[in-house]
Amino acid sequence: MKHVPTILAVAFLATSSAAALPQDQASTSNSSGESLADVARKAKADRAQKSRKPVKVFTNDSLPTSGGISVIGPPASEEAAGVTEADQALAKQKQEARDEFQKLSASLNLHQRELAVLQQKLNLAQVQFSFNPNETLQQETFRTDINNLTQEVKEKTQQVADDQQAISDLQAQVLREGGDTSWLTATGGAGAPGSSSESAAAEKLPKAGTREYWQQRFQTARETLARAQEEQQLAEDELSLLQTRQAQELNPTSQAQLAQAIAAKQEEIGMKRAATEKAKQDLDSLEKQFDASAAPAEWSQPEPAAAPPQ
What we know:
This protein is mainly alpha-helical.
């Protein structure tokens, strides 16, 4: 009986130690030194990693040989650049305004050069008219030339004014639509829609084979030929005036300068004649395509102009 208290004390201590063991384990780190919070975070991360769909990596051996690789979503370049439909629409609007401005500017430059040629011709005719006042026949010819040239100068001056007004109207339109006139002279960005006039014109063509399609193609081809012939004639007129000035010039230095200008103008005429010939060939080729299509003959003709309102 003397040993009973000792045995009970030992049992009590053993029971107390066993009951306290889980609480001590819960409040301590594991064998690797990580807390339960760290373990929970790691487990959550592991579950998230396992739930992800594995990404297939293509090698030279596993690369598909047909069908291509499907990519869902916008191209990487557009996605990285943040290109939206609104950006594309704005770029197209800028390009259309720029194309129109270049067209109007080219027309203004051509008409200004033609006006300068006509004014020089008029000046020469007036000098010749006053040079031989006693030769009646020549005087009548010069007078007729002067009258015709005066009328042509008047008409060409109006053309120049119309070109300048058209450019001003285009600038006002761009500003009115919330744009900037710097669009008209800026160079197009890489990859911008309608980056060239030819591609833009192709996009605007009606459905192939229709009446509108053929009429628009013929109109463009005829306008191109007419412009090429006009530019060629202008260059030839300018050459004629340079040669006249050279024949009248007595200063050797001025003659040498005119000789250089004449050589440059002759080279320009060669290029203008080549452009005219190409425009003719393009129109002939279009006519052959049209004949082969068996479309009605009237489809190759422009629409008649609408009658002015009464």
